[in-house]
Amino acid sequence: MATATPTDPGLRRALEAILAPERILTDPIARIAWASDASFYRLIPQAVAQPDSIAEVQALLRLARNRGIPIAVRAGGTSLSGQAITDGILVDVGRHWRRLEVIDGGARVRAQPGVIGATVNAALKPYAAKMGPDPASIASCMIGGIVANNSSGMCCGVVENAYHTLESLVFVLADGTCIDTAAHDADARFHALAPALASGLLALKRRLEADHALVARIRAKYRRKNTTGYALNALLDHGDAVSIFRHLLVGSEGTLAFIAEATLRTVPDLPAKRTAMLAFATIGDAARAIAPLTQAGAAAIEIMDRAALRSVETNKGAPDWIAALGDGAAALLVEFHGRDAVEVDARLERAGPLLMELAPLHPARFTADAYEQAALWKIRKGMFPSVGAVRARGTSVILEDVCFPVDRLAPAIGDLQDLFRRHHYHDAIIFGHAKDGNLHFVVSQAFSDSGEIERYHRFVSELVELVVERYDGALKAEHGTGRNMAPFVEAEWGPEAYAVMCELKRLADPDGVLNPGVVINRDPRAHLKDLKPLPVVEDEVDKCIECGFCEAKCPSRDVSLTPRQRIVVRRERARLVGSGEDPALLASLEGAYGWHALDTCATDGLCASACPVDIDTGKLVKRLRAEAHSPFAQRVALSLARSFAAVEGGARLGMAVARGAG
Q1: For residue 516, what pLDDT band results from cuts at 50, 70 and 90?
Q2: N or C terminus of the chain: which is more exposed, having fewer CB within 10 Å?
Q3: pTM to 2 decimal places
Q4: Which residue segments constitute the domains of the chain, with CATH numbers given?
Q5: How confident is the model at residue 635, as a pLDDT?
């Protein structure tokens, strides 16, 4: 198991020639805290760098190349496939890259990579506009990750994802070259400053266009959601080199360049909504309703299998009829949108005969009440954490993301359920964005012994065969390839397309320092390495799924550690105590934990308001403080509580208003 061995003093000195010392984190507690993202992987960085300018990023990239050190970028850290961690230099853009500008009366928005998605939409709300991508993590994830993962979500589908709404980027290549693609001479500068990359991209474009079968395959695969590998459609959709590369960076997960700024076209934010939960006797009946509902204009159609519904049927606000459903039942959460009540009700009226024909188990009752709508969406969004909260202690919760042809969704769900049974994932649930054929499934998995790791390996191997060979689907629809699907990109795309992707990586990153092992990885067992340890600690810690949703709410996130990081470090302390493997590291963590994790926590409970499994890290900290009997901790806590009081009050008011608005 990797531990936080001391950082090379030479690296620290080299970083200090670029950044102010306080923006370089090399102490063990910081490196452990930043070693985890929302995935089930862990890599301990040699250093965490917090640049605040493009010039500093350029210098960091040159340093990484010169020393042959991996370098990766972290924005919100909500990625689920292991693409926001590294054992080299981790560049944190969440702290100093938060500039946001609404342009042309809300038609466009320009943002740096550290701006939270919900912050963008809040700025656009007065213009009745929003971003196209609408990921479930939008209150925590950031623009850098939204673009780098080609995020989509429940409503945006393909046409309004990050790729299709991108207008321009400012990017920095591995050699430090910076290009603003909005500049009138951007393509000329690209050819002048990066001639091998620019000409290589055009050569790959010609190579692809000469292979008519591959062109047809690329076109077909990108009609559905797909974030497996690089965006080969960029080579077909655009004619000049800089436009090609700009769109290749969407979904590239930090492996081709650093994204310093993104300008996105916005989409209308239709305020009038009508929402209903439709129950069906079988998953087949529910699946057959998807295409007609889509044609009728439904903006969102979320499918839930019986296991998913069972996981939330006792939750507060869940309709009584869910508990009475038969074993093979399923449900659709359907929502229609409009500019006003007249428009949305007209759409619903036109869909009336169809809803009768679909014959759900209960009459369709579409509500306009914001609180009832929020309750229905809470049922759907509560399914992932429902498994996370009740999983066995010490196990990881894995949220996977695949895409099937919509007209084959019913048999695909049945095949997935068979796969879970064969591999003994008895807590597995399935839900997803039915309109796009995009299914998510949740399982809990232990990685504590070789037998469990091999069980997961067998499961993933059969999953790949099922998705790729039986259904010609996508192994990743919207969560990014990351580490866990990188070994299977060639299996999905075939050798010709994969060879193009490998050449793209070589052209953009000839030294292989940009997030190596992500997207492109020849190791067939890479998905089984660097797995995150989850020792049993205590109830609050053991429930944590390390999603990072709490971090945006934490008043002390720019001072010390976030709630997630406090738990990450506590888990490492427990692991070291249990294994006895590194007494010096344990002593270091023990010495630093008081100030970083306990003394600087505001204990205001804001983190709990965002936590999908209802962890209040503030309560945990209060208990630990009491156990520590630290007068200094009590004085600091009182000071922090007073300092954060105004912020907290405003935040709570804002959350109350947001809940009221659905």
Answers
A1: very high
A2: N
A3: 0.92
A4: 103-268 (3.30.465.10), 269-479 (3.40.462.40), 535-662 (no CATH)
A5: 55
